[in-house]
Amino acid sequence: MLELHGVSKRFGETLAVNSVSFSCQRGELVGIIGRSGAGKSTLLRLLNRLSDPSEGRITWDGEDVSRLKGSALRKWRRRCAMIFQQFNLSPRLDVITNVLVGVVGERPLMSSLIKFFPAADRARAILELDALDMAGAALQRAVTLSGGQQQRVAIARAMLQEPDLILADEPVASLDPVNAEVVMEALQKICRERNVPVIVNLHSLDIARRYCTRVIAMAKGAVVFDGPPSALTPQVLDRVYGGRASAPEPFSVVEAA
Fold first, then answer.
1. Which of 181, 84, 90 shows the shortest CA–CA distance to 140?
2. Strand 80-84 relative to strand 2-11: parallel, antiparallel, unpaired?
3. Which positions fall inside the ABC transporter domain (predicted)?
């Protein structure tokens, strides 16, 4: 179980994350919503320790991951897979090699540099791609894929790490509605079938309502709502978006001006 205990992050005089506390169980798909600048992305960077908290603790099954350093910290970052809005694939490499990047940290440096991966790793990569209906594109260059296909390759790469936790920073923000649905269904399936908690930053209220088991809303770095999507009332949304949110159309994007 992931637990945050009074976690804050300051950048100079700016309090980007303000005393955030919550827990996340295995099998939960948690959507984080809020206006731009609310602290959502900073929070994810704190969870995978790309950024260090100014105050508070982050624990996983009782282990204080906010204090990890060196090899222990690198191991945590592999256990805490990150999926980004822009996919972060190498466009000139084929799909299967992009997926195999997920195990680079566990293999000798030289074998990774010459792109030599054991047959067992390649088989695992194909299985992860197949689970996302992408095995047929294994030998295609990533640049030839659509945005939705590239995001599914990025998810396969993350799953090859065999993560304890998946973090996704606006993974559907650059996708059309159909591909957004495919990607969210993939994350939902992973969460349900593999019992891996998924925490995803979202701008679309409709997607949060349709796919998340729980929603956490942030405003000015603090948590102002934590509950089921059904409890996202107009009054709650006024607190989150400062009166700028209206009832969203399907897959509409609600952003700050």
1. 90
2. unpaired
3. 2-245
